[in-house]
Design goal:
Layout lengths: L2 H18 L7 H8 L3 H7 L3 H24 L8 H18 L7 H9 L4 H28 L8 H22 L3 H27 L2
Helix pairs in contact: 1-2, 1-4, 4-7, 5-9, 7-8, 8-9
Length: 208
């Protein structure tokens, strides 16, 4: 079996197990059993469980980034960047429901567990978060260029504020097994977007 295929099977199987349990509670034998490969295969690709954790997070972040890009940056599906943003959040709620209230983001699920004991894993998460925040900031920048939000908006701060609000809502929804916190967060974000758009319309009238 080709090397990349075997490695990817191990990573994908591990991700599924991490959704159900946690990084520390999932053992090497459990991962290998799920994939059906010998222990030697694991150590052929990964030097240690920490190295494996870094590779797993990179694998998940890469695929998640592609999914986010398909929704957030796809102008062919929706030309309005703010509508794409809301659609992305609504898609997360659908995933939450489909998965019976499980956290829809593996990064959020594992972050508090792995950052306290592994600096390489923490750095991997930080880089992934930076990429995602950059993507969100780009959505706001696009809206600024189109004139749907004010030109004095700090897109980096706006992206961080939205991400922090959404991450907190996901955490509370996961604890309560209810979509209400996530839905409330979307309404808050909708209101903020509407306020930005109203400011732009007012400015346009003043300069007309």
């Amino acid at each position: 079996m080709p090397m990349p295929h075997t490695k990817e099977k191990i990573l994908e199987a591990a991700e599924e197990l991490m959704w159900e349990k946690s990084f520390h509670s999932v053992g090497l034998n459990e991962i290998l059993k799920a994939v059906g490969v010998p222990k030697g295969s694991f150590y052929h690709y990964f030097e240690s469980k920490e190295h494996f954790g870094v590779e797993m997070l990179n694998h998940y972040i890469s695929e998640a980034t592609e999914r986010k890009s398909d929704t957030l940056l796809n102008r062919e599906v929706e030309s309005d960047p703010m509508k794409r943003l809301v659609a992305f959040l609504e898609e997360s709620i659908s995933m939450f429901r489909e998965n019976n209230g499980k956290c829809p983001c593996l990064v959020l699920k594992l972050a508090s567990e792995v950052t306290s004991f592994s600096e390489p894993m923490r750095e991997t998460l930080a880089k992934g978060m930076e990429t995602w925040l950059g993507m969100l900031g780009g959505v706001f920048e696009e809206a600024k260029v189109l004139g749907t939000i004010p030109r004095d908006i700090n897109c980096t701060n706006e992206a961080g504020l939205m991400r922090d609000l959404w991450a907190g809502a996901i955490q509370r929804s996961t604890i309560t097994k209810s979509t209400d916190p996530m839905q409330n967060a979307i309404e808050c974000i909708r209101g903020r977007i509407a306020s930005h758009e109203a400011s732009c319309r007012k400015a346009d009238r003043l300069h007309a």
